[in-house]
Amino acid sequence: xTLLTILLMAVITFxxxxxxxxxxxxxxLGAKMAKLLSFSAPAVLTAIWVPIIFIQQGQLxxxxxxxxxxxxxxxxVAAAKSKSIYLTMFVGLITFVLSxxxxxx
Amino acid sequence: xxxxxxxxxxxxxxxxxxxxxxxxxxxxPWGILCGSLAVQRDFSALEAILMPLIVFAxxxxxxxxxxxxxxxxxxxxxxxxxxxxxxxFLYGLALRDKLKVLPTKWRYSLGFLLTDELFALSSHHKSFxxxxxxxxxxVAGGSFYVFWLVWNVAGVIAGSYLPDLTHLGLDFAIxxxxxxxxxxxxxNIPILVTVLVAALLSVVFKLMQFELDLVAAALIAMYSxxxxxxxxxxxxxxxxxxxxxxxxxVKDSK
Lengths: 105, 254
Hints:
Structural class of chain A: mainly alpha
Number of domains of chain A: 1
Number of helices of chain A: 5
Shape of chain A: extended
Low-confidence stretches of chain B: 247-254
Distance between the termini of chain B: 46 Å
Helix content of chain A: over 70%
Strand content of chain B: under 5%
Oligomer: heterodimer
Radius of gyration of chain B: 22 Å
Order of helices and strands of chain A: HHHEEHH
Radius of gyration of chain A: 20 Å
Order of helices and strands of chain B: HHHHHHHHHHHHH
Mean pLDDT of chain A: 94
Number of strands of chain A: 2
Structural class of chain B: mainly alpha
Distance between the termini of chain A: 46 Å
């Protein structure tokens, strides 16, 4: 039963990824649609990471007791200044571990 | 010395691997979590490994494991998977004109590999154009697949020896990766508006426990960015028109 479920899940995830790149699908994108879609990467990726930072156990958490918020703030500064993915991850993770540790004291 | 074809391909493959490497490392905790959680929720090793092998979707895997463990109905599990995966429709649409023209084998492979991570590396206007960029994309996406599988298998093996990892804050690794990917792409006002609207609405919709939270927030944010772009262009056009009025000679000289 679980095997069947997993198989059907695989069909769904593949279909959602593949559907719109199938050439026979009767979809034509105009210039306006293409412009709209050019904003998809910042829109979707932001909608993935921001709730991780601000929502803890289903509750909005905007305070200095939220290690996610402290670390994300510094990571954003690092990303804006350096544009380096490694430096940003380094700054974010170090700050996250440190602030979690300090807050738990 | 001219670059031979083979050498150029090798360089692009290397670049694809290196560009994806930080993302491959960032999903280590997430992958181990998925693998170990499956084992802790009484999945067989085969079932636990089939998840990353054929479903290949972090958040869908994690949610489905909990649903299956709680004996949710098949319809619930599949519907939830569909909702979580529906953001990929946007990726397919955004890349449609570039990918639909590819030969079948490239199209199916890249379609399968089209994760958030590969999409994040695909924003260049020439991505997927020409064989070298295809090599780049397949190596980047393929390496992500291999790493994801390896981390999951590590989780399956460590499985029951690991404590419950769900409350260790492992999701921060994902968040910081996406911060590193998104923030440097904010190069103009419309993108800034897109990011701000997506940030605000994704939090609001999630707190409202709206099932389509992610996709709805993203769609409205995209439209806001689009409108901002049009508004700024119109303003520019009006300014230009004014300039023409002030100096008709510009018009004449054309």
